[in-house]
Amino acid sequence: MSIDQLIATRLQSLRKAQGLSLEQLASRSDVSKAMISKIERQDSSPSASLLGRLAASLGVSLAQLLAEDNAQSAPLRPLAQQEVWQDPDIGYLRRQVTAHEEHGGPELVEITLPAGTRVSYPGWSHQAYRQRLWMVEGSLNIDYGAQNYALSAGDALTFGVDLPITFSNPGEHPCRYLLVMSDK
User: DSSP letter string over 30-61?
Assistant: First the structure.
């Protein structure tokens, strides 16, 4: 299954599981009904910010939109089995290193953010979770609510998804970081 098929299937499945119409999800997420329909029909590839708004309005992590329902945690998860998604607008690259586990457990995600780009997400209003970020290479600015952080390779930051957050790469080269997400 392609990543666009996976996103379409997961979005529609999560929306229907919550008993939401396209119009209701559009109202919650501030994403047009037409765009949600296009994503579900695989007529459009969503941006990272748009996916973030949809995930937040559904009360799920981005990983839950980008991973299959039956993904199992196994001792070995080869690189070829790690879902990769790329933002069609800015080239943001997201690799789901560990599988999303329905009953908790930390998730590990690798992000590559191109030079001069930014991605903004709204605060999650329900089912908020914690993130721990470790900078692997490059530099990254994070606006978390009213707080501003400038990170360099080796730095670590812990934050939630309860407030709006913007990740921006001020450098001349892509930056790469790892996110560990957990319920606590």
Answer: T--HHHHHHHHTTSSPPPHHHHHHHHHHHT--
